[in-house]
Amino acid sequence: MENMDERFEKMERQLRRWEATLDELTAGAHQPGAIPIRAELVDDLRAKHAAACAKVAELRAADAGQWDGLKAGADLVWDELEDAFAGLRA
Question: What is the pTM of this model?
Answer without folding.
Answer: 0.82
